[in-house]
User: Fold this.
Amino acid sequence: MHSIEADFWAELAEIHAESIGWIPLEEGVYLHVSDENSTEVLVVGVPQAGAAVLLVG
Assistant:
């Protein structure tokens, strides 16, 4: 995929994630805060092949 097209789709995905309350931290990494007073961290998602996953409890 051409770099400009890849950048376009990445930015579109980021805009969509932001519109539903997800905060982009870096490419492919998002944070969602549903309750700022919560004492728990819930990690959800499906890793892509070859991706590292960090679970925080």
The chain is about 30% helix and 10% strand. Helices lie at 3-19. The beta strands are 23-26, 29-31.
